[in-house]
Amino acid sequence: MDRWISLSLLVVVFGVSCGWGAEERAVSRFEQTITLHMGRTDPLPETLLKLAEEAGDEAQRLRTLYTAAEIHWKNQAWDKAAELYERVAREGKAIDPYLVHCAQLRLAETRLRTQRPEQAIGIAQDLTHVASPFVAREASLLLIRAELAQGHREEAHTALEAYVTRYPQDQDLALIDVLAGLIAYDRGDFATAIKHFQKHPDDATALYALLATHCAQQQFPQAIAAYQQLTNQ
């Protein structure tokens, strides 16, 4: 179990939006663009909440709530963000199903980042079957990460195999190899883990995982080489 701890944080550093080439409109609605630099005490979310309550249009009210949640998300105010995502998911089912699914996806990611992977698993499992290709794909990836974070390596492996079967065009992505490498690492199969990580010498997460794996094996010359690659990124 100790070897798992050294890499466990990798599971939650992947962002939700991974640039899958999904329709721009869908992605932009999911990941609201905030152009101002927000601090943790920024008053804008509270202002948006007031505007939401005054909105005469229910769809606009939900979008305003979602934007307020996104600001809390970007400021890492996880509990406040989760509360608003839950509200959008609860109140928007008959108004904007896509926005509801986005809110649920963010909520699952929030649960994962606040060390509640068991809750993230339940949400992600439901979202893997929704109509939106973007949400379904992101939820499938999140499910793998949540299973890993929960220590369910066999469930994570099953979820990863299901993902590659469903999205074969993604099998060579760095993220997929990193997840496969983490599963191998947790099984104690360091050689396989290293093979996965080494496929992506230009990816910082893969290099960090490679560095950690060599350290766990006390392969210090290789660890130094991986570190040098990482610092040259």
Descriptive overview:
It is a single chain. By secondary structure, the chain is mainly α. It folds into 2 domains: 2-171, Serine Threonine Protein Phosphatase 5, Tetratricopeptide repeat; 189-233, no CATH class. 69% of the residues lie in helices and 0% in strands. The longest helix has 17 residues, at 58-74. It is elongated and about 65 Å long.
Overview in brief:
This protein has 233 residues and is mainly alpha-helical. It is built from 13 helices and no strands. 38% of the residues are buried.
Q: State the order of secondary-structure elements, H for helix, E for strand.
A: HHHHHHHHHHHHH
The CATH homologous superfamily name of the largest domain equals Tetratricopeptide repeat domain
Mean pLDDT across residues: 84
- Kindly report how far apart the N and C termini lie: 31 Å
* Major sheet characteristics: none
Strand content: under 5%
Number of helices: 13
CATH topology of the largest domain: Serine Threonine Protein Phosphatase 5, Tetratricopeptide repeat
**How much helix is in the residues?**
55-70%
Structural class: mainly alpha
Report the CATH architecture of the largest domain. Alpha Horseshoe
Cα-atom radius of gyration:
19 Å
CATH classification class of the largest domain: Mainly Alpha
